């Protein structure tokens, strides 16, 4: 009997399978690892994995780890995603106890035990917040320390004049950083802004000309005031009209404007959706249903520490995707984005 794929799967079957992936997975088999660099899918095929979006247990990401421990893990009503609302990872616990060295060692163990080949870490800059700021030099130092296992994305400091930010971006790219990330919703000088702010256009021109990715922060927590402005997809459409070859990545997938993010990716082939943890948060079924259709424009990520490495990958492998698409989603798309091929 021919195995069903998303192409011939009935709609009710897709929702049923997606629900299994998003629920407790009580009946799903655990992840099988091979040489700590592969995972085995439902068909028995082995896949390599790059976790495009995660953060290590370092002081520079302390605010995110505190959010997992103090907000997500303590949420009064259940968020039905076992990777988020289930067991808190040991690395996160150790970080909460102040054991940074132990937490980092355990973090790598969790990566290895899950079967992840490499991770991608995006830096960030938030003025006056050392627990929410990771610079390019630190990222490059970690790349050298863990060659082939960790890749960094440079934070763009938009609290400074654009000319200065552009000069720093040129230096970062010359040093070998794999991409850049911008967080308009967290700008301090002048207040939160949006991606279509014309002041940023020289930055976009540099990245488009060099074929380097630009990740923009979106999602429910992309602005300290509210999640409206950072997620206005029409603004990203305006940017893409000016820079049609810009390799734009939606960090957190443009959530909660999921259908608009999908339309943006449909219209602009150089747009990539990194829905990461939101793939299994409320409404994430829309991402799940379109990974196969936009198979070159989705990239896998866990958003660790917001979700566990192992359970997130387990949920992902339960999705009704073809082996060809799993290969792209889990590995090949990230390699292409990071210019590793």
How is this structure best described in words?
Helices cover about 40% and strands about 10% of the residues. It has helices spanning about 10-20, 60-70, 80-85, 90-95, 100-115, 135-145, 160-175, 200-210, 235-240, 260-265, 285-290, 310-315, 325-335, and strands at about 40, 45, 50, 120, 150-155, 180, 215, 250, 270-275. The two termini are about 35 Å apart. It has a single domain (about 50-335), classed as Metal-dependent hydrolases (TIM Barrel, Alpha-Beta Barrel), CATH 3.20.20.140. It is built from 13 helices and nine strands. The protein is α/β, with parallel strands linked by helices and about 350 residues long.
- Beta content comes to 5-15%
Radius of gyration: 19 Å
CATH class call: Alpha Beta
Within the largest sheet, what's the order of strands?
3-4-5-6-7-8-9
Q: Work out the count of structural domains.
A: 1
Describe the sheet with the most strands: 7 strands, parallel
Sum up the overall morphology in one term. Answer: globular
| N-to-C SSE string, H for helix and E for strand | HEEEHHHHEHEHEHEHEHEHHH
Low-confidence stretches: 1-12, 14-18, 22-30
CATH topology: TIM Barrel
What is the end-to-end distance? 37 Å
Average residue pLDDT: 90
């Amino acid at each position: 009997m021919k195995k069903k794929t998303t192409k011939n799967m009935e709609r009710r079957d897709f929702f049923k399978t997606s629900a299994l992936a998003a629920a407790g997975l009580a009946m799903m088999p655990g992840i099988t690892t091979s040489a700590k660099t592969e995972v085995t899918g439902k068909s028995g095929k082995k896949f390599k994995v790059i976790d495009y979006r995660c953060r290590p247990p370092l002081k520079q990401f302390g605010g995110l780890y505190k959010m997992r421990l103090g907000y997500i893990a303590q949420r009064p009503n259940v968020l039905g995603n076992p990777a988020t609302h289930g067991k808190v990872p040991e690395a996160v616990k150790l970080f909460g106890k102040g054991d940074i060295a132990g937490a980092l060692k355990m973090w790598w163990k969790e990566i290895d035990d899950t079967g992840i080949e490499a991770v991608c870490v995006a830096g960030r800059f938030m003025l006056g917040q050392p627990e929410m700021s990771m610079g390019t030099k630190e990222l490059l130092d970690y790349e050298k320390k863990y060659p082939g296992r960790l890749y960094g994305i440079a934070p763009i400091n938009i609290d400074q004049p654009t000319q200065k930010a552009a000069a720093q971006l040129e230096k970062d790219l010359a040093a070998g950083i794999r991409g850049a990330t911008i967080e308009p919703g967290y700008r301090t000088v002048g207040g939160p802004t949006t991606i279509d702010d014309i002041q940023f256009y020289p930055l976009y021109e540099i990245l488009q000309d060099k074929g380097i990715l630009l990740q923009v922060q979106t999602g429910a927590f992309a602005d300290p005031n509210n999640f409206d402005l950072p997620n206005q997809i029409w603004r990203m459409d305006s940017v893409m009209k000016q820079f049609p070859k810009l390799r734009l990545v939606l960090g957190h997938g443009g959530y909660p404007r999921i259908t608009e993010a999908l339309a943006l990716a449909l219209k602009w082939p150089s747009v990539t959706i990194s829905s990461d943890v939101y793939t299994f948060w409320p409404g994430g079924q829309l991402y799940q249903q379109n990974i196969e259709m936009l198979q070159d424009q989705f990239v896998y990520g866990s958003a660790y520490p917001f979700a566990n490495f192992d359970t997130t990958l387990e949920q992902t492998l339960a999705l009704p995707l073809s082996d060809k698409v799993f290969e792209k989603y889990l590995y090949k798309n990230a390699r292409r984005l990071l210019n590793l091929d």
